[in-house]
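#onboarding

Welcome to the new folks! Below is a worked example of what a typical request in this channel looks like: someone posts a single protein sequence, and someone else replies with the predicted structure as tokens. Don't worry about understanding the tokens yet, we'll cover that in week two.

Example request:
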Amino acid sequence: MNSSTDTPDDPPMTHYFDARPTTHSQRSEFTITVGDTTLTLASETGVFSARGLDKGTAVLLDWELKQQLPEMPDGSVLCDLGCGSGAIALTMATLFPRCTVHAIDVNERARQLCRDNAAQNNITNVVVIDPTQRNPEDQYSLLWSNPPIRIGKTELHQLLVTWLHQLSHDAHAHLVVSKNLGADSLLTWLNSQGFPATKKASSKGFRIIEAQRN
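Example response:
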């Protein structure tokens, strides 16, 4: 007798960082406010924060919206690394309408969800990208991210090294990371790898880290 609770017909467990999630697809909606604009987004099972806006992203966006926005020349390219449903990407696109935002995610369901959310909100300056199609010539003037901490330390470090190297020399990245999931050690690691990094804020158990390309 098979003691496993799985049956041969059960789909394997999937994670938000899987390329092709097999979880049954079910969508729900949430809203975010960007200045005078209200964005309506769908979230979906098999994608990070399937039930709506997660706490970490909410902390990052709340903090960003209270800061003085950096000046971005028209045509600048910005990046949301690990876009999920697109909350960060769509916020950046709304704040910087004359820039292009690259929304990056390994999860094909997340990429389609981000495209759909951009279209739903009539946002045309978001380009959704599979990281396997990364163009190393792209240079980012700004990068915001709620990075996928749970992929594992080695994979996370490789991800950050790859994409932070695509910051232009005077650009910076803002990362939101849970204190309990290693925000402080990540800050130390970034500095050790030649990405000057500082803690900009702490809220609700999360750190906001600013990093630059050396």
